[in-house]
């Protein structure tokens, strides 16, 4: 089972988000970088599948040279191969990102291996475009489902197939289809492991394949970013401990929320 | 010309998120949905949004696309929220959920009705179908929009969520039709003042075998209880609950208030509660009347999930916890004492059983 996992380097945001003075980016001078929790789960899921069925996990990212850090984080967790689709640091939209990933999939297939499965996070933490996985799948003619929180991959003489489920209105809906496919997963599909020390050492030395895809303009163009004005102010303290319960009941009553 | 809106339905009728998307579609239709002029120098409001145009808008009708038996169309609700027509794909043509086939139907309906824009609530299904529609048509898709205004000369000026709503992006969107999903936690559903009649038309989409390769083989659930996304009251528990055994009083309180339990990310990462109960950027975005957050410090990724709550009340031992900066009221104290006392007071109010 050859699995590619797509991850994206995003700012690690903590207490609040600060923008650059030109309002074009999140100010990252004081923050680190990470990948989305959905993508951490995608890496973990891929590693678990290859532990069971054999094969290789490749981790793929599109980003600046420093995005190699995020590739090495995934290598430390069990990915074996890393691919950096290198950019000059400017923001890439979903259409350009799709083209770069599709080119990597075709390049890998032309090299004689080829991916059986691409796993993506359901959406990137920063841009939240919710579409790259589907666009990649359609360009390749592969099936795709999103929002997946349970995945079973099986392999037999007839080939490999997926049974993928997600939450649906308090229950679940399930999809079954043959591979190759693109599956976009959500946090909750597994509990990601922590990297091992040998894993970290191997990741530090690992070679990273680098390619330079071409940027292209998009029909959705960012003009500027802003922090929404908070709808609320500092809370009024009703009281301390159980003494505050009558006041709390009064507030709930006023809002019409008591049965 | 229309604005076309995907509406998801279940046994109870139209999904709440879809009525919110329909409200958005109605606003778009009221703005003319096609290039118009904004008076130069128009200032933005405090929320950063453009004020409603003072020009008489050239209203276009809102058309709805939905999938299911034609006799189950929630016609009253659709008309109440501004739809003029419903185009219904019946199970005979397409049974169950198949995202690419649904997108194919939307593409056909967009062409047939001359849609200036196609919108859907940013639910799992809505986001997925719209991504497929973008991929099938080669059109750009703006996800999680909260506002859209036509621009003179074509296209839209949109405002959309980034970072699950922690940031707003002002952007330009091209495409005919313009494709948008709606961040429905930020767009309340509002009935229109003068609902018209709803014209219902069956629609047979032109799907092929590839469109049906991905289809839901099992759809289970429709649990009768309130879901986290639509609950009127959510009682939240965080690290301060202390462990997997500490949630019973919170669940009891939620039950007494007719609500459900929600939890912070640390609770699901620790395995104390299942992930489906997580409120936040990577969990569920909630829109209750009341979010009672207990033992939750208020990481911004959590606040992204509860920004749609009408009222937030906090129970926390730490009066300096960040969540207090986003709440209406706070009780400073140990939830292990405050919540049982609140439960007891509510029981006493209800009187002897």
Structurally, the number of domains of chain B stands at: 2
**Main beta sheet of chain A:** 7 strands, parallel
As a whole number of angstroms, the C-alpha radius of gyration of chain B is: 22 Å
Instruction: Please identify the structural class of chain A as seen in this structure.
Output: alpha/beta
Structure description:
The complex is a heterodimer of chains A (about 260) and B (about 350). The N and C termini of chain A lie far apart (about 55 Å). The longest helix of chain A is centred in the N-terminal third of the chain and has 17 residues, at about 35-55. Chain A is about 25% helix and about 30% strand. In chain A, a hairpin with a 2-residue loop joins β9 (about 160-170) and β10. With about 260 residues, chain A is an alpha/beta fold. Chain B is an alpha/beta fold and about 350 residues long. Chain B is built from eight helices and 17 strands. In chain B, the strands form three sheets. Chain B has a nine-stranded mixed sheet, with helices on both faces. A five-stranded parallel sheet of chain B has the order 14-13-15-16-17. A two-stranded antiparallel sheet of chain B has the order 2-3. In chain B, β4, α2 (about 75-80) and β5 (about 85-90) form a beta-alpha-beta unit. In chain B, about 60% of the residues are buried. The chains are: A alpha/beta (about 260), B alpha/beta (about 350). At the A-B interface, α4, β7, β9, β10 and β13 of A face α4, β7, β9, β12 and α6 of B. β13 (about 220-225) of chain A pairs antiparallel with β9 (about 165-175) of chain B.
């Amino acid at each position: 089972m050859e699995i590619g996992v797509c991850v994206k380097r995003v700012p690690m945001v903590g207490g609040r988000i600060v923008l650059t003075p030109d309002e074009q980016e999140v100010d990252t001078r004081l923050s680190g970088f990470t990948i989305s929790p959905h993508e951490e789960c995608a890496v973990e899921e891929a590693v678990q599948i290859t532990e069971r069925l054999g094969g290789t996990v490749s981790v793929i990212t599109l980003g600046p040279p420093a995005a190699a850090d995020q590739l090495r984080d995934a290598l430390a967790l069990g990915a074996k191969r890393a691919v950096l689709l290198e950019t000059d640091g400017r923001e890439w939209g979903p259409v350009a990102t799709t083209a770069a990933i599709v080119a990597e999939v075709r390049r890998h297939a032309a090299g004689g291996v080829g991916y059986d499965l691409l796993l993506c996070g359901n959406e990137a933490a920063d841009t939240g475009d919710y579409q790259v996985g589907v666009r990649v799948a359609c360009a390749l003619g592969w099936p795709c489902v999103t929002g997946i929180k349970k995945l079973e991959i099986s392999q037999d003489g007839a080939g490999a197939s997926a049974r993928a489920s997600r939450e649906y209105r308090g229950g679940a809906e399930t999809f079954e289809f043959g591979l190759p496919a693109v599956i976009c997963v959500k946090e909750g599909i597994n509990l990601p492991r922590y990297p091992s020390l040998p894993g970290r050492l191997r990741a530090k030395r690992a070679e990273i394949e680098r390619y330079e895809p071409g940027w292209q303009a998009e029909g959705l163009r960012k003009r500027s970013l802003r922090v929404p004005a908070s709808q609320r102010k500092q809370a009024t303290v009703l009281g301390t401990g159980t003494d505050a319960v009558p006041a709390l009941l009064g507030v709930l009553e006023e809002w019409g929320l008591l049965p | 010309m229309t604005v076309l809106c995907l509406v998801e339905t279940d046994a109870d009728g139209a999904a709440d998120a879809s009525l919110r998307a329909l409200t958005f579609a109605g606003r778009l239709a009221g703005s003319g949905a096609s290039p118009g002029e904004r008076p130069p120098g128009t200032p933005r409001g405090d929320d950063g949004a453009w004020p409603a145009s003072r020009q008489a808008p050239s209203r276009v009708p809102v058309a709805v696309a939905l999938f299911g038996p034609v006799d189950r169309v929630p016609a009253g609700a659709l008309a109440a929220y501004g739809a003029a027509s419903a185009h219904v794909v019946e199970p005979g043509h397409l049974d169950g959920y198949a995202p690419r086939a649904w997108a194919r139907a939307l593409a056909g309906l967009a062409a047939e009705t001359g849609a200036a824009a196609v919108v859907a609530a940013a639910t799992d299904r809505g986001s997925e179908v719209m991504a497929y529609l973008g991929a099938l048509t080669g059109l750009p898709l703006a996800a999680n929009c909260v506002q859209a205004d036509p621009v003179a000369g074509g296209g839209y000026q949109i405002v959309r969520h980034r970072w699950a709503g922690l940031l707003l992006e002002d952007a330009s969107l091209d495409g005919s039709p313009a494709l948008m999903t709606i961040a429905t936690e930020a767009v309340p559903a509002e009935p229109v003042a003068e609902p018209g009649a709803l014209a219902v038309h069956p629609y047979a989409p032109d799907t092929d075998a590839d469109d049906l390769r991905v289809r839901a083989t099992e759809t289970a659930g429709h649990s009768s209880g309130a879901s986290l996304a639509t609950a009127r009251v959510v009682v939240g528990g965080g690290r301060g609950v202390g462990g997997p055994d500490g949630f019973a009083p919170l669940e009891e309180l939620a039950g007494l208030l007719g609500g459900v339990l929600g939890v912070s990310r640390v609770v699901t990462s620790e395995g104390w509660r299942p992930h489906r109960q997580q409120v936040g950027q990577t969990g569920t975005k909630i829109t209750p009347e009341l979010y009672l957050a207990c033992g939750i410090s208020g990481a911004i990724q959590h606040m992204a999930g509860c920004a749609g709550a009408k009222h937030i009340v906090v129970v926390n031992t730490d009066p300096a916890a960040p969540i207090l900066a986003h709440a209406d009221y706070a009780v400073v104290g140990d939830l292990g004492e405050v919540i049982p006392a609140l439960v007891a007071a509510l029981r006493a109010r209800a009187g002897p059983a």
